[in-house]
Amino acid sequence: MSVTLRRATADDVPFLVELLTDADVAPFLAAVRASTPEAVGAEIDRSEREPDTFGVLVVELDGEPAGTVTWERVNRRSRIASVSGLAIAPHLRGRRVGVDAARALQRHLIRDVGFHRIQMEVYGFNERSLRHAERAGWVREGVRRKAYWRDGEWVDGVLFGLVEEDLDPS
């Protein structure tokens, strides 16, 4: 099983829209996450125009689309990127595709792109993503209590970070 990442292209829009609107995926992504063909296409255009500051990536399993993840530079001087929207096709869960993708992304952003720190935030109710983050080597840093209005209630955001010393040595 080979998990790889590549920059999304316009040809990936149908796959990404289907994944991001899946009933078992959408409730766990940011409420403002692009999910229409037009919005996903616009993000891919930005990813192609700004390759050093923004990326929409496709996770592939043995060369076939399996998921997606997005990152954005949030601090130029301190070389910090924020990761969001890691989503794996539901039928592939339980096969470590997400963990392998997260670790590949971590290595890519820190070692290849040159970020000093990467960070992400997960909804506190998203137990599956919280477990995933810890399995993938993210370091839990704190909680933003009742930070987001979601489905008629305030929910926590759990903060994770990672610097090169935290990377899996592989």
Give a description of the structure.
With 170 residues, this protein is of the alpha+beta class. It has a single domain (3-166), classed as Aminopeptidase (3-Layer(aba) Sandwich), CATH 3.40.630.30. The protein is built from four helices and seven strands, in the order βααβββαβαββ. The protein has helices at 13-20, 37-49, 97-112, 127-135, and strands spanning 3-7, 54-61, 64-75, 80-88, 117-123, 139-150, 153-163. It has a seven-stranded mixed beta sheet, with helices on both faces. The two termini are 16 Å apart. The mean pLDDT is 95.
Helix/sheet category: alpha+beta
Q: What characteristic shape results from the CA principal axes?
A: globular
Output the helix-strand order. EHHEEEHEHEE
CATH C-level class? Alpha Beta
Number of domains: 1
Instruction: State the low-pLDDT regions, or none.
Output: none
Backbone CA Rg: 15 Å
Report the span from N to C terminus.
Answer: 16 Å
* Main β-sheet description: 7 strands, mixed
The CATH architecture can be given as 3-Layer(aba) Sandwich
CATH fold-level assignment: Aminopeptidase
Total strands: the figure is 7
**Strand order within the widest sheet?**
1-2-3-4-5-7-6
Which percent range describes the beta-strand content?
35-45%
> Mean of the pLDDT scores?
95
Number of helices: 4
Q: In the CATH hierarchy, what is the superfamily?
A: Gcn5-related N-acetyltransferase (GNAT)
Write the layout of secondary structure elements.
Blueprint: E1 3-7, H1 13-20, H2 37-49, E2 54-61, E3 64-75, E4 80-88, H3 97-112, E5 117-123, H4 127-135, E6 139-150, E7 153-163
Parallel strand pairs: 4-5
Antiparallel strand pairs: 1-2, 2-3, 3-4, 5-7, 6-7
Helix pairs in contact: 1-2
